[in-house]
Amino acid sequence: MRMSLILLTALVISFAAAFYAAVKSGTENEKLYKVELSRVENELREHAGEEGFKVDTGKYPNILRVVPQTEENREHFYGSEERYRICDIGGQLYRIEYSEDFSKERTELLRTVAVLLCAAVLVTAGVLIYLFFAFVKPFNSITGYPKELAKGNLAIPLSEEKNRYFGRFLWGLDMLREKLEDEKKKNLELQREKNVFLLSLSHDMRTPVSAIRLYAAAIKKGLYKDDEKLKNVADKLDENACSIEGYVAGIVSASGKDFLNLETENGEFYISEALNTVTEYYGEKLKDLGTSFEVGKYADILVLGDKDRYVEVLQNIIENAIKYGDGGIIRINSRDEEDARLVTVENSGCTLPDNEAEHIFDSFFRGSNAANKPGSGLGLYIARTLMNRMGGEIFAERKDGEMHVTTVLKKTGGN
Q1: DSSP three-state, residue 385
Q2: pTM (whole model) above 0.85
Q3: How far from 413 is each of 268, 299, 388, CA to CA, in Å?
């Protein structure tokens, strides 16, 4: 708003300056007319008495003509449609007629300047008002919102704005808030369940651990003399050890669950919808990186799954190809096998050892070729989880020094 006021003030000042210049120009024109009258009179005085002398009016833009009084025009000497001045030069009267067009020109000039500048002020004011309500005001209403999200204040919804420029942005931002709020609730619930699980587990493990310690202390003191009793103690120790082993297995199983809470909304979508989204994004990105990007021809069909999640799968695969390939080429090829559509992302320069290829879809796994590259080891794990949730598959293989990662989606019954 401050910038709008500054621009409007600058325009008004410009208008005032231009108007002043026009007035000054008219005033100077009027002064020129007076100067010309004075010069004509002086010229007449200098040549007073010279027979046949005539003033050259061509030298004076505002002087129309100079008429001396004679017997023939005496009666009408003082009558004229033009503006004039009578002067007495050595007893001879002269009528010096001058033009008043300059006043008309000045009036028209001032009127034109005023109209144009007023129109410019109104147009500019209208544009500034439009920009304020279309951009500045909606943007100001959400400037503090990202800060609230960063602080974790997710309960305040965004007010709906029917704005064609910010409407979809605000809607998307509010969806992000709702998603973060939902994730926050799930994380809190997961933390609560984790704490309950650990408390229960620690209580349950205390009994077999205590029994093992008691049996160990008794053996150490030599309380069991015969072999039969020692055999019974060994059985008890084994039984308690198996109980602890079961609890440990429970911990491992719980830690292997989907901690990322990856959900899909399965339905039908055209494979071109996903591939076009990926192509539009990575076409420019890979061009900037100097990597050749090719998408092979394919027949568009309906497949089963979640389109947005499938795009995420392809993005994770391509990001891995960018990170761990040699930057030469990345290709996307498609083919059909029975009732499935296979889409393969291929990248040149595979440096992953053969004995590590089978682990690339494990959570937090990072190959020996990722030593100096940032990452969490979750990209392909997420891709595999999402493909399984969509009823599909994913697998990887090395071919001729290239890495090929293939996704498998089921076709719909109509294909």
Answers
A1: helix
A2: no
A3: 10, 16, 19
Do 394 and 272 share a structural domain? yes
- Residue-wise pLDDT for 213-252, tens only, equals 887 888 888 877 788 888 888 888 888 888 887 777 766 6
If asked whether residues 195 and 79 sit together in one domain, one would say no
DSSP string, 240-288: HHHHHHHHHHHHHHHHTS-TT------EEEEHHHHHHHHHHHHHHHHHH
Domain count along the chain: 3
Residue pair 156/149 in contact (Cβ under 8 Å)? The answer is no
- Contact between 385 and 260 under an 8 Å Cβ cutoff? The reply is yes
The dihedral sign for the CA sequence 360, 366, 368, 371: positive
Measured in degrees and rounded to the nearest 5, phi and psi for residue 392 equal: -110, -165
pLDDT tens-digit series, residues 11-38: 667 666 666 665 555 555 556 778 888 8
Given 87, 104, 121, the domain boundary residue is: 104
Let me know whether 35 and 99 are in one domain: yes
pLDDT-derived band of residue 390, with 50, 70 and 90 as boundaries?
very high
Same domain as 223, residue 306: no
Radius of gyration of the chain (CA): 47
Q: Which domain holds residue 82?
A: 2-104
In a domain, 179, yes or no: yes
Does the residue 149 lie in any domain? no
Q: For the chain, what's the residue count?
A: 415
